[in-house]
Amino acid sequence: MTDVVEAVRTPPAVMGLYDGPMWASIREGTMRLQRCLDCGEMQYPPGPVCPHCLSSNLEWQPISGRGTIVSWVVYHRTYLAAYPEPYNVVAVKLAEGPFMASNLEGETPAQSWIGAPVRMVYSTMPDGTVLPRFTLDAASAGKTP
Q1: Is 56 left (phi over 0), alpha (psi -120 to 50) or beta?
Q2: Mean pLDDT throughout 9-16?
Q3: pLDDT tens digit sequence for 82-122
Q4: How many Cα atoms occupy the beta-carbon half-sphere of 59 within 13 Å?
Q5: Which domains can be identified in the chain, with CATH numbers?
Q6: Cα separations in angstroms, 127 against 24, 35, 134, 143
Q7: What's the Cα-to-Cα distance from 110 to each of 69, 114, 132, 137, 143, rounded to whole Å?
Q8: Residues facing 67 on adjacent strands
Q9: How far apart are CA 20 and CA 32, in angstroms?
């Protein structure tokens, strides 16, 4: 008898009306977010209007991928098979302004994670799903993103 090991499925992205272009850019390895052409603010998650000035004059622009950890947690329980314990979740303030939650890959901060500079990487999960994640950014240590 042959054992067939099926790849663990990554939970699918929740696709709202405005999320398609963002996920397409993630699959291409250059995440894009909406920028308001009237006030200049970037927004995440995507939406129909700018949350700052309510303009609908938006365009998709690439982000730098740089940011700073503002909060973090390490889970010691498996809730989804795609994320075996222990795993971390970080809240990152992007250099462009919005906040996003993801995971920190590779080396973890030796002390407090708060304020650690990070950069975005694109990780391909075993099932082929591409996710934006972060790694420590030693090149930006001591700089404000």
Answers
A1: alpha
A2: 91
A3: 999 999 999 999 999 999 999 999 988 888 899 999 999 99
A4: 6
A5: 13-63 (no CATH), 64-145 (2.40.50.840)
A6: 17, 31, 20, 36
A7: 14, 11, 23, 14, 18
A8: 94, 118
A9: 11
